[in-house]
Design goal:
With 401 residues, this protein is an alpha+beta fold. It contains ten helices and ten strands. Strand 6 and strand 7 (256-259) form a beta hairpin.
Length: 401
């Protein structure tokens, strides 16, 4: 049987299609045998055209069935990749509001005015109060593992994480924060004030006396987001363990920054961003996958840092979650739905007509064969009639058996 190049390489992984193909192949083998016997027994019928028509229809059925299964799997992959990145972007949009709100907190402004360095009189006592305020804020929103306050020179004045002993930051984002007129700065990278993290997602902004970005700058506030925890929650709600799929989040260059299984697709791996194709067959770590990427739809004009949702499903498991459903629909009702619904392609609607045409040709050939045998003096007449009956039985549709 001939199929499209992509589908041909995938059908061997589609168990429902393989089962159907085996049934059709079995029928085709029967046709070959019966066709040969009909010639040897002089049954008086030529089955070549019927057999060829059946072979062509079988190939069309398998191709259509395989295409439908592939389309279903790809649609689900696309949905998961899209949802994974859109949920993250929506949640991160809320973080942009948090930094803007906290940067205008009067208690923080007052603290920076009165205790601009760690050597200011009364610094230690008031730092304990501010730290408690930060802890309460982080506990309320539960999405930040650290909140850091620095003066404009990068001296760290207060933070939640007491285990982090960094006293000063020379990070390049300090200049960016101080000079920007934007409402916040979003960075996902290594930050020297979070040395225990290879990369971290941080929302930063400057604190000014009256909240205007052009005023004298009192300090810099940084909210450090629990990115790994966020992605774990997103992935756990989407992953289907049955297909062994792996959901990842890619940066704008295709580098994995989050993975549903870091032992499967590790952080830092470089993957192809697949946006302009429905799917692509890719090889990673010596294994073949169906892969698809999705860029975010954004949320209220917020698009983040150009990240993409990306899913990879091992080919040998990609179709393992497909379940055939039995709706107990009668043959007549199924034909009525198929022929009168706009939901089905014209080529699909024509399949029952082609099958009926093959059946009619077969019935006609059997009838002609019976007529010939009735008028024949062939000594194999009984054999030929039995053969014609077997051909008729083989050609009967399953729903009539």
């Amino acid at each position: 049987m001939n199929y499209s190049k992509n589908l041909s390489s995938l059908i061997k992984y589609m168990e429902p299609v393989i089962q159907s193909k085996q049934q059709l192949d079995g029928l085709e083998t029967n046709w070959d045998t019966l066709s040969l016997l009909s010639q040897l027994g002089d049954a008086g019928m030529n089955m070549d055209k019927i057999k060829n028509d059946f072979t062509a229809l079988s190939a069309e059925l398998i191709s259509y069935y395989g295409s439908e299964l592939l389309e279903k799997v790809v649609a689900e992959m696309n949905s998961k990749a899209q949802v994974s990145v859109d949920i993250v972007i929506r949640n991160l949009f809320e973080r942009t509001a948090d930094i803007g709100f906290l940067a205008t907190d009067e208690a923080i402004k007052e603290y920076l005015l009165n205790y601009p360095t760690i050597y200011s009189q009364g610094y230690q006592e008031n730092n304990t109060k501010l730290k408690k305020r930060f802890i309460e804020y982080a506990k309320k929103y539960s999405v930040y593992f650290d909140i850091i306050l620095m003066n404009p020179h990068g001296d760290i004045l207060s933070r939640i994480d007491s285990s982090n002993t960094a006293l000063k930051s020379h990070d390049k984002i300090l200049h960016q924060i101080i000079s920007t007129n934007e409402e916040y700065i979003e960075t996902y990278k290594y930050h020297d004030f979070l040395p225990q993290h290879d990369k971290s997602l941080v929302y930063s902004y400057k604190v000014t006396q009256k909240g205007e970005s052009s005023e004298n700058i009192l300090g810099v506030l940084c909210l450090c987001f629990r990115f790994e925890d966020e992605m774990k929650g997103v992935f756990n709600n989407l992953i289907n363990p049955q297909t062994k799929e792996c959901l990842t989040l890619l940066d704008d260059k295709g580098v994995v920054i989050a993975s549903s299984d870091k032992y499967h697709i590790p952080l830092g791996a470089s993957l192809e961003i697949i946006l302009d194709e429905p799917y692509k067959i890719v090889t990673f770590g010596g294994r073949d996958y169906l892969a698809k990427s999705s860029k975010t739809n954004g949320y209220q004009g917020f698009y983040g840092l150009g990240w993409h949702g990306h899913i990879m499903v091992p080919l040998e498991h990609a179709f393992s979650a497909i379940e055939e459903e039995d709706f107990n629909i009668t043959h007549k009702l199924l034909l009525a739905i198929l022929q009168h619904s706009d939901l089905f392609a014209k080529s699909l609607k024509e399949i029952p007509l082609q099958a009926a045409d093959i059946q009619n040709n077969l019935n006609r050939a059997i009838w002609n064969g019976n007529v010939k045998q009735n008028n024949s003096i062939n000594t194999n007449k009984q054999f030929s009639k039995a053969l014609l009956q077997e051909i008729k039985k083989t050609g009967e549709p399953y729903y009539k058996r």
